[in-house]
């Protein structure tokens, strides 16, 4: 079909008909409802938000790949992540879901918006394709006006879906048989931020979702320095060990709170 003529949906769904990128548990809605009711963080956590029970049902429309990735994230305390996409030249950062559920686009920043914008900027400014003065627009969005970064929800939302049967609700979660529970689903970036310590962005690597093999060396050169610089950002910020004052032993799962940032971190 040609590398740029396959369409955005080609290869997006698994054999079971599930869009893996939109298959993670929706934790945003629960957090925002709790915030609206002044329950955060004393009665409802602002981080390490638990996965809803309905999402864990054996017959819920959750792909085995998604369950495996979540198990992996829970076993290793990642702090920085990026997922790589194609079809545009831009770096997006959370939240990816709009806070106003019926809006297709809405600026929806996290409590750590400054950090996320910095992380996205590090990648975008060192990416050869994004930084090139001769770059062309992939489609109709001119992301160069914003430094080639954008809040995900302000571009196009990754909607949650109200739990029900089949494929009803607000979208996302995949298509299942009529009696299959469709859990409320969201993207991986929001899930990583709300369920773990991990800060994650999405990198849209290229206008071309399916580059030819001959183009791959150039794509690697476009992204090599960006990937290295991005990984180096784990060394930014405050580091240390939380210890018991009397025994000097390290304290696991100590909660670190920063004034003015309504998102805690655990050791």
UniProtKB/TrEMBL annotation:
InterPro entries: CARBOXYPEPT_ZN_2, Peptidase_M14, Peptidase_M14_domain. Signal peptide: none annotated. The active site is at residue 204. GO terms for cellular component: extracellular space. It comes from the Eukaryota. Its cofactor is Zn(2+). GO terms for biological process: proteolysis. Keywords: Carboxypeptidase, Hydrolase, Metal-binding, Metalloprotease, Protease, Zinc. GO terms for molecular function: metallocarboxypeptidase activity; zinc ion binding. Pfam families: Peptidase_M14. Residues 1-234 form the Peptidase M14 domain. Belongs to the peptidase M14 family. This is CPXM1 carboxypeptidase. It comes from Spizaetus tyrannus. The gene is Cpxm1.
């Amino acid at each position: 079909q040609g590398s740029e003529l396959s369409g955005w949906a080609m290869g997006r769904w698994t054999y079971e008909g599930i869009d893996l990128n939109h298959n993670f548990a929706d934790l945003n809605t629960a957090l925002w409802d709790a915030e609206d009711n002044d329950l955060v963080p004393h009665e409802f956590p602002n981080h390490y938000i638990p996965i809803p029970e309905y999402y864990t049902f054996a017959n819920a429309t959750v792909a085995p790949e998604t369950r495996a990735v979540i198990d992996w994230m829970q076993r290793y305390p990642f702090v920085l992540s990026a997922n790589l996409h194609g079809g545009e030249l831009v770096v997006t950062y959370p939240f990816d879901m709009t806070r106003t559920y019926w809006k297709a686009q809405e600026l929806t920043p996290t409590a750590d918006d400054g950090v996320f914008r910095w992380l996205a900027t590090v990648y975008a400014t060192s990416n050869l394709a994004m930084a090139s003065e001769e770059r062309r627009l992939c489609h109709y969005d001119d992301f160069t006006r914003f430094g080639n970064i954008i809040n995900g929800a302000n571009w196009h939302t990754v909607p949650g879906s109200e739990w029900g049967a089949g494929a009803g609700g607000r979208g996302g979660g995949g298509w299942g048989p009529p009696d299959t529970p469709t859990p409320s689903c969201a993207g991986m970036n929001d899930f990583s931020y709300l369920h773990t310590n991990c800060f994650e962005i999405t990198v849209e690597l290229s206008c071309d979702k399916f580059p030819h093999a001959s183009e791959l060396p150039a794509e690697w050169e476009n992204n090599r320095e960006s990937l290295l610089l991005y990984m180096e950002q784990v060394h930014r910020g405050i580091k240390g060990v939380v210890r018991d004052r009397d025994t000097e032993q390290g304290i696991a799962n100590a909660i670190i709170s920063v004034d003015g940032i309504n998102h805690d971190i655990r050791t």
